[in-house]
Structure formats: C-alpha cells, structure tokens
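Input record (one chain):
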Amino acid sequence: MKEETRKLLDKAQQSIEAAKSLLDGGYADFAGARAYYAMFYTAEALLCSKGLKFRKHGGVHAAFGEHFAKTGLLEAKFHRWLLEAFGKRIKGDYGVDDVLVRGDAEALIHQAEEFVVAARNLLGTATRNGGAAKE
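The corresponding structure, as predicted from the sequence alone:
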C-alpha cells in the first residue's frame, strides 16, 4: 500500500476517534463534521491507491463515485453516505442553529467506521486495535 494511502486511512481513523470524543462532550454538529472528514479521507485514500488526487471536495466526491461506486468496487451506499455527510457538515459548520442531534452524529460515526473497514478490506489490509493496518 502506498504510504500516502496508509496515512489517509490513519487520519480517517483519527477523525472517527475525534468525532466520538466530540459527541461525548455534547457537540453533535462538530462530531458529525469529523465523521464526514473520516469518510472524505477514506475516499481520498482509495483514490490515491489508483494514483488520483483532487484539490476540492467535489472532485473527490465525483471521482469516488466514478471509480468505486459505479464500478461496483464498493457499494454505492458509501458514495451516498459521503455526499449526505458533506451536506450535513456544511449546514453544521456554516449554520447558526444546531443541525445534528446525538442520534444523527452517532449514525454518521457508524457510517464512517463502516466506510474505513470497507476501504481497508478492498485495499487488502486488515484492521486491529481500532484501525492499525497489517502490512
């Protein structure tokens, strides 16, 4: 696995842990944003594994859909989750009202965890101890 791909997956796992901490502190909007970023870093890692890099979120979203969801390499639900989480992150980050409640953030965190596992499985790595990859 490319070093950059591994680092992005590690960063995704760290974002999940940060999301859990934020949720425990009562910050559902911010926890949801970290869960989105876990999904985003996972999508970037997968694209990186194919030698693809993008500068904007929209580029990552579109390329992930094209190279992984439409081809069936990963279930289309991961692309849908990524896009939905992005919308929630935007509302949570830029809105003045709370957008997410605890249950919403918990669902996003669960989706992010599932996304990381699916990516690691696709890339031929196994997880142990919360995300460390066996090489």
